[in-house]
Structures are given as C-alpha cells and as structure tokens.
Amino acid sequence: MGSSEAEQQSKMNKHSCVCAVVASMISIIFGYDTGVMSGAMIFIKEDLKINDTQVEVLAGILNLCALVGSLTAGRISDYIGRRYTIVLASVIFLVGSVLMGYSPSYAVLMTGRCTAGIGVGYALMIAPVYSAEISSPSYRGLLTSLPELCISLGILLGYISNYFFAKLPLKLGWRTMLGIAAIPSLALSFGVLKMPESPRWLVMQGRVGDAEKVLLKVTNTKEEAELRLLDIKTAAGIDDSSNVTRPNTKRSSGEGVWKELLWKPTPPVRRILIAAIGIHFFEHATGIEAVVLYSPRIFKKAGVMAKDKLLLATIGVGITKTCFILVATFFLDKVGRRKLLLTSLGGMTVALTMLGIALTVVEHSATKLLWALGLSIGSVYVFIMFYSIGLGPITWVYSSEIFPLRLRAQGASIGVAVNRLMNATVSMSFISIYKAITIGGTFFLFACIAVLAWFFFFFFCPETKGRTLEEMEMVFSKRGKAKNSDERVDVELESRTRAVPSV
To answer: Which letter does DSSP use for residue 404 in this model?
Structure first.
C-alpha cells in the first residue's frame, strides 16, 4: 500500500461521520427526556399533589418500558433495517412527548412517560449499532460514542429548559418542558430517511450489491470498501465471490440467534456476553442516575435551598457531563477503551467517597458548613467528569462493537435491557435507600460498587481499539487477548489490501 493511499484511508470519511451524527440525534431527545424530568418533578409534585413514591415511579417507569423496547428492538432492526428502526423510535418519542405535554392527570403523564420509554429502548439499541456498522475501525470509537455525547447534550438542554420554563405559570411550565420534545422527534423522523442503510444489515439480507454501493460512500478508497465488504461477507457466511440478491432468510429472521447467545454459546461468545452485560450493569449500579436525575435533591441536602440556585447548580452538572464526554470521544481511538475505563472507575470511586463524607457531615451538623457544601458540589462535578471520560461513552461503544455480526442486534438489545433495568432500579429506589441508610451512606455504597466494577473491567474486558468488527470473537479468545491489536491490524490491513480481489 502506498503512503498516500494509507494516509487517505486513515482520514475520517465525511459521509460516515454525517450518518453517525444524524443517527445519534435521537439520543438528544432521550437525554432531554431524562434531564428535563429532574427539574420538572419539582413542579409536577406541587401541581399534581403526588407523593415521593409516585415521584420515584415517574422517574423510573421510563426505564422499565425502555427494557421492553430494547428487547424487541434487536429483532425489529434485523427485520426492517437499522434506518427504519431509528424512524420508528422517533415516532414513538413524538407520541410520548405529546401525551406528556398534554397530561391533565398523573395517569396520562405516566402513559406518555411509558410510551417515551419504549422509544428510549429502541434509540439506545439502534443508534450505537448503526454508528458502529457504518464507521471504519480507525474512527469507530469516536463515531460510536456520539450517541452518549448526544444524550449528555440532551440532558443539558433539559436542565436549561427547566431553568427557563420554570418562570411560566405552574400548570403550563412543566407541561411545556416535557411536550416541546415532540418538535425534534418529528424533524428527525424525516431526516433519517435521507441516510443510507447499514452495509452489514444489507449483507445479512443478501443485498451485497447495495452494501457495496454504501461502502463506497462511507470509505475513502475502493480498496478499503472491498476489504470491508470481504470481511462482512465472510462474517455473514456468504461466499467470497457471491453477489447474492436473495435474502439470507435463516440469518435475517434471527433463527438460532438466541440459542447461540444464551443456551449454547461458544467460549468467546460467552465472554462477549458477560462483558456486555457487566459493563451495562455497572454503568448505572455506580450511581450515575442518582446524580443526574436527583441532583437538585442532592444539592438541597447539601444546603442549597433556593429553586433557581438548585436549577443553576444542576445545569453545571449537564455542562460538565457534556464537555468531558466530548473530550473522551477524541481519546477513545488513541488511548483505548480499557485504559479509559480503569481511569474512569478509579476517579469515580474517590469522588463518590468524598461525596459520601461531605453529605454525612452536613447531615450531622446543626449549622451550615460552607466547606462541606463546597465539597459536596465539587464531588458531584468530579464524579460526573470521571464518569464522562470513560464509563459513560465506552459502555455504548464497547457493547455495540464486540458482538459478531450475526448476533449484534439481539446481543446489543440484551445489553440495553440490563442497562435500563439497572437505571430503573437506581432511579426508583434512590429516595427509599437514602431514607433507610442516609444519603451519605448511599454514596458510600455506590463507591463500593465502583471498586467491584474496576476489578470486573480489569479481568473481563480486553482492549478492542483498532480491531475490525469481524475480529471480535478472536479478541475474546485467549490467544486474541495476548496480541498487540494495533500492530496486528496495521500489518493485516496492508497485506490483505494487496491481495483483495475486485468484488
């Protein structure tokens, strides 16, 4: 391979970047629904006269419904395609937002929240999978982390919406906060139709010619497109010289996928499934949802009492989360997933411990202690910072890239189901837990879980930086772990590009 050709292949393809950005936009809507609820709950409780248990249910029901959505999304995306699944998620969000914006009662509000939750399940599964399948190995980390960045941006927009719409009359303010998400949902449902379908899904359907056309758009050279198509065809079990136009019905219908994933997995697939379930479990078991959703309540416990100051401090959480996830997107493909994960968990453990100490001191002090208040707010921001440079974005990058092609959609849906289950568990139990063991004790508990997460990632999550999606089973085999991925991929890419036949 010539130096100029190699340099061209190393550049990010603009078309694949635009596709990943548009697909990730649905995550902004989900992030907005999560962030806006943290402030809206203050006004909903006052307007609808609901109790703390109803507040917990309202906060967590979105994630229980997302679990249902995610379990069906994998099969749906294999059936109708990645692109139309994003459109479907947008339409579901639209319906949910309209219902929440209307909400004459708690029952209607819950119905809208449940509807939006199903859309969340679809969005969380499909956005990173589509981004991973459309991008090259060199920039897959950056593009696949865009959905998490968009979630953070959406959360920030939700916090800002809380602050400005809080100035409206009580009955109108929170309904506007929730209902305005219908506008971007409608726009996105039309915008996604301009995007190409995932080339890997097209190959699964036997549409190799269509997949080749898409790959020529999302790669920089014809040789790179041919190499990626060859890998995809091999992974899909299609003959090297075949340009099949008939759907591969056995694979496209998902036949045998659940059996291969859950009942009789090979050792590498078993390790992949454990890694995916583990990383989704620990993303929320370490307390991020408690901090994001209940940050106004945490700051109030720390001593911030005025509503406008509570909302402003919460906006700071959103800004911190968004900025540091943006930083992480540029390091994922340079530093690697594993190093960032371990660094992230180390920092989160320290921050959670400091937050637990500060809130315990505040709770047992008869007077207002400015240093404890400052330590509480600072610890929240440090926790968000370390979460955002590692665990937050890498959860979605890692789980969307490690499954083999034939198992990717359903495998990703299992990960999202675990993610939403843990999200719902934390968001629906946080108030009850801190009432039982104090709010400081709750964050000490999260710190202990973060330590367990560090050991899990150290022993069960190998590095995937620089590997193609078709190589992940080898990465999770014992001999695959021992190799230097960057050197191996560079050598193999050069040798195979010389030898690849014209497709």
So the answer is: -
Is pTM beyond 0.70? Reply is yes
Write the CB contacts of 164 (distance below 8 Å, at least 6 apart in sequence): none
Q: Which residue range is the domain that position 475 belongs to? A: 8-499
Residue 1 lies in a domain: no
The answer to whether residues 113 and 59 touch, using CB atoms and an 8 Å cutoff, is no
Domain at 268, CATH number: 1.20.1250.20
Q: What per-residue confidence (pLDDT) applies to 243? A: 56
H-only helix segments in 81-105 = 82-102
Angle CA 393–397–400, to nearest 5: 140
3-state helix, strand, coil in the chain (%, to 5): 80, 0, 20
Check residues 478 and 294 and name the one with the higher pLDDT.
294
Q: Check if the beta carbon of residue 124 is closer than 8 Å to that of residue 420.
A: yes
* 8 A C-beta contact, residue 128 and residue 397: yes
Cβ-proximal residues to 2 (8 Å cutoff; 6+ apart), any chain: none
Q: What is the DSSP letter of 260?
A: I
- In angstroms, the CA 21 to CA 31 distance is 15
Cβ-contact 406, 248 below 8 angstroms:
no
- Read off the pLDDT of residues 152-196 as tens digits, 9 standing for 90 and up: 888 888 888 888 888 889 888 899 999 998 888 888 888 888 889
In a 3-state reduction of DSSP, which class is residue 485?
Answer: helix
CB 402 within 8 A of CB 276: yes
Q: Which whole-number Å values give the CA distances from 58 to 6, 52, 55, 164, in the listed order? A: 53, 10, 5, 22
Is the residue at 162 inside a domain? yes
First to last CA, the chain: 19
**Residue with the two structure tokens 């920039």:** 139
Q: What H or E segment, with its residue span, contains residue 41?
A: helix 14-48
> Residue 247, SS3?
coil
Residue 25 lies in a domain: yes
Query: Which token pair is 50?
Result: 């609901």
In angstroms, rounded to a whole number, what is the distance separating the alpha carbons of residues 376 and 354? 8
Q: Is residue 3 a part of any domain in this protein?
A: no
> In whole numbers, what is the pLDDT of the chain averaged over residues?
82
Cα(10)–Cα(63) distance, integer angstroms: 39
Phi-psi region of 303 (alpha: psi -120 to 50; beta: other; left: phi over 0): left
- Considering its fold, how many domains does the chain have in total? 1
Retrieve residue 293's tokens.
């959703």
- The token duo for 213 is 């056309």
Rounded Cα–Cα distance for residues 241 and 302 (Å):
66
